Amino acid sequence: MNGGGRRQSDTGLLASMALAVLFLPSGVTWGVGPLDLKPGFNVFSLQQDVQLGKESAEKADNAYPLITDPDVVRYINRLGRRLAFFAPNNYSYYAWTFKVVSASDINAFALPGGFVYVTRGAIELAENEAQLAGVLAHESGHVVMRHGTHEASQALLAQAPLEILGSVLGGSGSLTERLTEMGLRLGVNSILLKNSRSDESEADELGAYILYEAGYDPHALAQFFQIVEKRDPQKTIEFFADHPNPENRIKDIDSEIAALGPAKEWRASSPDFEDTKQRLLSLRATTAAKPPATASTALPGPPPAPSSRLIRFEGYGCSIAYPENWHVQRTEDAVLLFPPGGFVQVAGSGSAQAFGASLSRFQPQGSREGRWGLVDATQELLDTLRESNPNLRMVEQRALNLKGRSALSTLLETDSPLQGQKEQDLLVTIRQGDSMLSLIFVAPKPSFDTYKPTFDAMLQSLELR
């Protein structure tokens, strides 16, 4: 009797389930329930996440060259917002704005409130739309877990009790200015982007979940990380410096995927993805030729004196301090550090840097086999520079020791973009892995000695990863 009743109950249950499936609204699919992940300790409101993200995004927009092609912008926002729809802990406050940085670096980052940036290099590296979706889903995970303001909250709490923080955060006006006054470093290289390994693990878990719910194979997220690891080792170092690599990352992602549910008929790619990649490749030459977005015509008279207060830039596998009143600009091939008015207009040539510094990486011949020396590689770089600047000449060259690392200092002289003046450039080259890191400090010859203490402080602050 009990057995017969149990079978009858099962039959009724199956019939009810069948009816429920028949009357499901179109577009509803079976999937896992929402993840039971909640954001950590936070002194900011959701609205302040958006305000802080918006103010920081304005700084990022000035610091990075952005792709403005409408087709690319439309595609990345359509894809990103579709993915964000499936993110747990999502709120109507979030802005969900996606932008493409015109840089060959393989990178992506998310600011609080839904402002997500991905480099052209990351899009070009992705083999299909699912892998690109994995990158955007991972960054969306950082947003909905509020990792940026969580890290900022912990830093603030170490400086002041909650009641003081409440009064500071409850004010009006610029939130970034109030936080800067409290000693919190904001801007492009701010604490809002300093994710921990546990943050990365949570973003991986959210990313896999979002992919699954959006109809992409969640393995695509792990596949993208594997491609990064197999790519140029230096690119890998730079990527995982911004995205700390949790132990057993790929294995952990795979184990999370196993708990998501049965495999579906995955969406792998799309014509729009392929069109966007081709569009980016066609734009590469055009965007590379443009002057930096924040470069400006020289001010009447010299730029303001370098601030004695230094802040740090992190990237290119290194960290370096620079004056607080200088700008940071990533271009196609370098990072430029310069004061207001540090660029001048040159007739027929666009803008040129007259003051400041630049940071770039050079791949010498024979680097793949490891058969190259610092002196020969520096000479090879100089030969390359002379192709566009035939008046460049060497004044002096000497060996340096930078915190136990061998380096080469080369003093150069050439024509300044400031009419009628000569320019001095101090080129410092350091071997790092299979490539060479180069720093060039630039000033008109009459001003070089004035800038030299700042250049020396910057050089001594250099830290290689």
Walk me through what this model shows.
- There is one protein chain.
- With 465 residues, the protein is of the alpha+beta class.
- The protein has 2 domains: 46-286, no CATH class; 291-464, Protein Transport Mog1p, Chain A, CATH 3.40.1000.10.
- It is 43% helix and 20% strand.
- It has 15 helices and 15 strands.
- It has helices spanning 2-22, 46-63, 70-84, 120-125, 129-144, 147-157, 162-169, 175-181, 197-214, 219-230, 233-242, 249-258, 271-289, 374-388, 448-461; strands at 97-101, 108-111, 115-119, 310-315, 318-323, 327-330, 334-338, 343-346, 350-353, 356-362, 393-402, 405-415, 422-432, 435-444, 463-464.
- The protein has a 7-stranded antiparallel beta sheet, with helices on both faces. A 3-stranded mixed beta sheet has the order 1-3-2. Strands 4-5-15 form a 3-stranded antiparallel beta sheet.
- Strand 11 (393-402) and strand 12 form a beta hairpin.
- Helix 3 (70-84) packs across helix 5 and helix 5 crosses helix 10.
- The protein is globular.
- Residues 1-31 and 285-300 have low confidence and may be disordered.
